[in-house]
Specification:
The structure holds 2 protein chains of 2 kinds. By secondary structure, chain A is mainly beta. Chain A is built from 1 helix and 8 strands. Chain B contains 15 helices and 11 strands. The chains are: A mainly beta, B alpha/beta.
């Protein structure tokens, strides 16, 4: 599992290195590395906790569980970068906001969908792309 | 559509606690001095230098000397070291300092905290300032600045966004603006009037970055699409410069050179599930509950409502960021703000709600919203470049889409 260190000028670290900013995020990304999409849910009131966190904001319970989710949802919105803001990303690329069937919204990239093909409420499903041996990203392709 | 209904009815917003007692601040504190540097794209001066000039001008404007100043209020993002600043200004002994977080969301909170300090006797004269080389130095709006947000105080959410190249504030705003336009059926060709009117204001304001550079509606629609649906001229203007105000009690304010501008209400709001400009897990992604909460509290404290406001200074990191606040503050209904600005007459100086009359952050300068406070003070003194006739009340807000703050000021 990759964890962030102090940024070293002048090298610009790949933004994926910053995935785990808090320890509460570690189980989420460990599951993604296994190509599983699991969300944290409060054991008491069943509120989804995304991003993961140590305490439920609705009932203050510290008890939570990791629940595999469908990985299916709809594109709620998106943006396209005509120019890259960072050397790690090649323009043009898009960032999508996916509303999962469970109601939680995730930021991601489209997989196999060109920027001009994106549509509001397009059905999508999760795919996984390995970044390294122990780190992967979840992305979304058109639902089959 | 259930989410839209929740937005319309505000059913997900809910603060049932007893209201705060703001009686020490309301009408008992005032802004008595304002100062600013030139606003430019390259000051060739450091931020300490800019801060000193703006603060000295504000102190002079208030008829005070540096020896009178005993409090200092800054943003946590400010790059000027406070002890260095105190030493440069020559303040013998500072009795009160505090810092406010949330960047532009803290612009009005700076004044609120200063007012609380003078109202409770922690200090007599508090300086509020902001100095930044946003144009020539570190540019917050650029993606390669992301590491700075992380080292300052890493927001949990960024760990889920940055790996996907979701890196710039404008793209975060475009994400919710696009959905908002979709849900309300906003046509791209109806937009742009907000930017055009602010540029008109800047043509009468020699301090504005865009003074002498008018913008037509055609010019707006020809400007580059930076992050659809947001064009270049939907964005604020990166600026080098500084602005400062002096806050004291209403009793002291009576005997000072300028007529006092009283603080009729001051509020902050940090609602649940608020991220720093990326609050995508709220019922509607474009809603600004923090602005709504601030507005409700400002109206409650002041006893005024939207119809009583003579001039508005709404924080505009980009055009929709200010326009959607018109809805949240009750100046128009949900989904109506683009119509409200269509043709521009309602927000011009003789319109229903003169808006960002110095040119705002889009066309005057981006001094993190402190320049909106100084413009509200000029309007209530009657000394603005685009003076609203008989202006007696002004609303000022801080950054939308993050923990925010606001003020109602009056003559």
């Amino acid at each position: 599992m990759t964890t962030p260190g102090e940024p070293e000028a002048p090298t610009v670290p790949h933004p994926a290195l910053w995935a785990v900013l808090y320890r509460s995020s570690t189980p989420f990304w460990e599951a993604v590395a296994r190509h599983e999409l699991s969300l944290q849910r409060c054991s008491g009131c069943k509120t989804w906790l995304m991003p993961p966190r140590p305490m439920c904001p609705r009932c203050q319970s510290a008890e939570s569980e990791w629940v595999p989710v469908s990985g299916r949802g709809k594109i709620h919105s998106w943006v396209t970068y005509p120019e890259s803001p960072h050397p790690a990303f090649e323009a043009p690329y898009s960032v999508i906001l996916v509303e999962l069937d469970e109601g939680v919204r995730l930021v991601s990239n489209p997989s196999g969908i060109a920027p001009e093909e994106l549509e509001m409420d397009m059905p999508v499903e999760v795919v996984f792309e390995d970044v390294s041996d122990d780190f992967a990203l979840y992305k979304f392709k058109r639902a089959g | 559509m259930q989410m839209l209904e929740e937005y319309r009815t505000k059913s997900y917003r809910n603060d049932l606690r007893p209201p705060v007692d703001a009686n020490l601040v309301k009408d008992k504190t005032a802004i008595v001095g304002i100062g600013q540097t030139a606003y430019s794209r390259n000051a060739e001066r450091d931020e300490l230098d800019l801060a000193c000039e703006a603060i000295k001008k504000a102190v002079d404007d208030a008829g005070l000397t540096m020896a009178d100043i005993d409090g200092l209020e800054a943003l946590t993002l400010d790059r000027v070291s406070m002890p260095t600043l105190i030493g440069s200004l020559g303040i013998e002994n500072l009795r009160f300092t505090s810092e406010v977080s949330f960047g532009g969301g803290g612009a009005c909170a700076l004044v609120m905290h200063a007012a609380a300090a003078v109202a409770t006797g922690a200090a007599n004269y508090v300086v509020v300032y902001r100095a930044l080389n946003e144009a020539s130095g570190h540019r917050y709006g650029r993606g390669d600045g992301y590491a700075e947000y992380l080292t300052a105080a890493p927001t949990l959410h960024y760990g889920y966004y940055f790996p996907y190249g979701f890196l710039t504030p404008l793209s975060w705003a475009a994400m919710y603006t696009k959905r908002w336009m979709h849900e309300y059926g906003i046509k791209l060709e109806d937009t742009g009037w907000y930017s055009v009117v602010l540029r008109e204001y800047a043509q009468n304001n020699p301090d504005a970055i865009f003074y002498g550079k008018p913008l037509t509606i055609e010019g707006f629609h020809e400007s580059p699409m930076i992050s659809a649906p947001l064009r270049l001229y939907d964005c604020c203007v990166d600026t080098d410069g500084a602005a400062a105000v002096i806050v004291t009690t209403a009793d002291r304010a009576k005997d000072m050179p300028h007529a006092p501008v009283y603080i009729a209400a001051a509020a902050q709001s940090s609602p649940i599930e608020t991220e720093i400009q990326t609050s995508y897990n709220r019922p509607i992604v474009a809603g600004l509950p923090e602005t709504w909460y601030v507005g409700q509290e400002l109206y409650r404290q002041s006893g005024l409502g939207p119809a009583d406001i003579d001039v508005a200074q709404l924080y505009d990191p980009f055009s929709y960021g200010a326009m959607i606040q018109l809805e949240e503050l009750g100046f128009c209904g949900p989904g109506e703000c683009v119509d409200f600005c269509l043709g521009g007459d309602r927000i011009r100086v003789d319109g229903d709600l003169p808006l960002n009359t110095s040119g705002g952050l889009l066309s005057e300068a981006y001094i993190h919203g402190v320049n909106l406070v100084t413009e509200a003070v000029r309007q209530l003194r009657g000394t603005a470049y685009n003076q609203v006739a008989d202006a007696e009340t002004a609303i000022v807000t801080a950054g939308p889409g993050l923990p925010t703050s606001g003020l109602i000021l009056r003559k």
